[in-house]
Amino acid sequence: MTDFIHKNKRQLTWALYAVTALALVLIIGDQLAGKKAARIVQTLISGVLVGGVYGLVALGIVVINKASGVFNFAHGWMMVVGGMVFWSFFTVSEISIIGAGLLSAATMLMMMSTVSWRDLRAARNIRITVAGSVILTLLMTVGGAELRWLHALTGTFAGAILTGLAVERFTIRPLIGQPLFTAVLMTLAVAEVLHGVTQIVWGTVELNLPVFVDPQTNSRFKPIRLDAFKEALDGIAIVRVELVIAFALAIVAFVGFLLFFRYTSVGLAMRATSEDQQLAQSVGLRVRVILAITWAVAAFLASIAGVLQGGAVGLSLNISFVALRVFPAVLLGGLESISGALVGGIIIGIVEQFATLINSSEQMGTNLAPYVVLMVVLVIRPDGLFGEKRIERI
C-alpha cells in the first residue's frame, strides 16, 4: 500500500484536488440555487468591476517585484497617501502656493539626484530643477475651483513620485547586497511609517472624495438598472455607476502602463533590468536609476488605485487593507506577470462578491475568501497561472 501511494503520489494528489474542487462546486451550486438569476448576474458584474481596481493594485506590486525581487508590503499605504494627497488638492478652495512650491521643489530635487546628490552641482540639472518646480507649482495653483482636477492630478503625481523615490532612496537602496528578506522587512517598516504619517496629517475619520458625482446635480450617480433583461433574469440587476467608472479608469491606467512599458525607451530599460540586472548594467544601463523609476511608477499606480477606491467606497485608512486582499491576486496571476495581475485581480473580485452573496456577510468576502484562495494557490500552483517556474541549478 505504501509503495502504491509513493509511486502514484502525483496522480493521487491531483485526484484529491479534483474531488475537493467538485465538492466546492456542488456546495456553491446548492447555495446559489435559491438565488435569483438577476442577483447572480449583478454579483458577477460587481466582481469584475471591483476586480479591475484590484488588478491595478496588483500591477504596482508586480512591477516592484519584477524589477527588484522585493515584495512591497507598503503598497497599501502608498495607496492611502496618494488618495489623501488627491483629496487635499481636490477639496480645498485655495491652494497654498508655499506648500505647492515645497512639494514641487522636493519632487524635482529627488528626480534630478536619482543617482547621487552630486548631480545637483551641474548647472544644467539646477536649471531643470528650477524650471520643473515652477511648472509644477503653477499647475497646482493656477486658476480657481474650476481647475481642481488639474490641481489634484498634478499634486498627486508629484506626491506619488516623491514618495516612490524617497522610499527607494532612503530605505531600499542602502540594503543593496543584503539578503532579500531584509528589504521585504523594510517595506513592512515603511508601511507603518506611512500609516503614522497619514494619521498625523489627515486623521482617522473617513473622508468623502466626490470624484464620481453627477456634474449637473453634484450628487452620486443613480445606479444602472438592467431593465431590458428583467424577464430573462427574473428580476432587475443593479450596477453602481461608481464601480463602472472606477473599472474603466483602472483599465485605461493599465493599458497606459503597458504602452509605456513596451514602447518607450524607459520601459524597455525597465524590462531589461527586470530580466537580468547584471546584464543590463553590462550594456550601459543605469540600473540604480531604473530601479528608482520603477518605485516611482509603482507609487503612482498605487495613488491612482487609491483615488479610484476612495472615490468608489470612501477614503479612509482601511483602503490599505485592499492591498492585503490583492496579495492573493498577485500570487494567483504570477509574481512577475503583468497580464496575470489583471486576471488575478478580477478572479479575486468575483470570489469576494460571490462569497458575500452566499454568506450574506461582507466579512466573509473581504476577510476570508481571498485568503482561502491564497492558501489553495500556494498548495496547488505556487508560481501562479502565468508565473515563470524558476529552476535553480546546484
Helices and strands, with pairings:
Layout: H1 2-7, H2 9-32, H3 37-68, H4 75-91, H5 97-112, H6 123-141, H7 148-172, H8 180-202, E1 213-214, E2 219-220, E3 224-225, H9 230-233, E4 238-239, H10 241-263, H11 265-275, H12 277-282, H13 287-313, H14 320-333, H15 338-359, H16 362-380
Antiparallel strand pairs: 1-2, 3-4
Helix pairs in contact: 3-10, 3-13, 3-14, 3-15, 4-7, 4-8, 4-13, 4-14, 5-6, 5-7, 6-7, 7-13, 10-11, 10-13, 11-13, 14-15, 14-16, 15-16
Word description of this protein:
The protein has 16 helices and 4 strands. With 394 residues, the protein is an all-alpha fold. The protein has one domain (31-93, 144-377): ABC transporter involved in vitamin B12 uptake, BtuC. Helix 3 crosses helix 14 (320-333) and helix 5 (97-112) crosses helix 7 (148-172). The protein is globular.
Summarize the structure.
This protein is mostly helical. It is built from 16 helices and four strands.
CATH domain class: Mainly Alpha
The number of strands is 4
N- and C-termini, Cα separation: 34 Å
* H-E string: HHHHHHHHEEEHEHHHHHHH
Largest sheet: 2 strands, antiparallel
Count the DSSP helices. 16
Looking at the structure, what is the overall shape?
A: globular
Radius of gyration: 23 Å
Report the β-strand fraction as a percent range. Answer: under 5%
CATH topology: ABC transporter involved in vitamin B12 uptake, BtuC
Please name the CATH architecture.
Answer: Orthogonal Bundle
pLDDT below 50 for ≥5 consecutive residues: which ranges? none
Which class do the helix and strand fractions yield?
Answer: mainly alpha
Give the fraction of residues assigned to helices: over 70%
Mean pLDDT: 82
Q: Largest sheet, order of strands side by side?
A: 1-2
What is the count of distinct domains? 1
